[in-house]
Amino acid sequence: MELFNQENKSKEREFEKFNLKDGEVWLMSNFMPSEKAVFYYDALLSNINWRQEEIKMYGKTYPVPRKTAWYGYPDFNYKYSGIMCNPEPWTKELMDIKRVIEHFLPGENFNSVLLNLYRDGNDKVSWHSDDEPELGENPTIASVSLGAIRRFDLKHKEDPDQKLQIELSSGSLVIMKGALQHHWLHQIPVQKKIHEPRINLTFRTIKL
After folding, report:
1. The whole model's pTM is what?
2. What is the pLDDT of residues 41-100, one digit of tens each?
3. Quick one: 57 exposed, middle or buried, by C-beta within 10 A (0-12, 13-18, 19+)?
4. Rounded CA separation 87/52 (Å)
5. Could you tell me the domains of the chain?
6. Which of 10, 120, 169, 203 is found 20 to 30 A from 50 (Cα to Cα)?
């Protein structure tokens, strides 16, 4: 596969598995070699049909504090925060990344991906769980980061002592699985000192 090349043969790619209550988070910080991360970042920044969505809160309409896109197989629609997403066809780059993730996760076959473009440190995603009904009971979500390093926060919904922070570097892969979406929230907070963009790809399996 294209992402598997000579550079990473000396560095075995394995998951660091965090011991969490009521869920699982796995991190592979060296999932993608640095030059591949730059290549896919540039390709996705240029070729994806990024959209500025809006959400309604308390009777007012606000722009979502990042740009987004939804790609996947036909008919795998997704709705979150009142936003209906109809998939655009897979690009070659998205399919490349999907296949390599699935190499590390035998049995997974992701049928869609939500992309987020954080233009700088002012863009964010607030505390939430990916617990929409169309994702199924215990969804596995694979998240790839490209571009600027951003902080990824998680906290347990009921136990305030249970929390986790991860610095997501370019080319890293995070897997959220098990009962995590039932019991935990996660966010990408504002980090005003960051001036570079970040692209995040969250591969999902929609249940029809």
Report:
1. 0.91
2. 999 999 999 998 777 766 777 788 899 999 999 988 777 766 777 889 999 999 999 999
3. exposed
4. 16
5. 12-204 (2.60.120.590)
6. 169
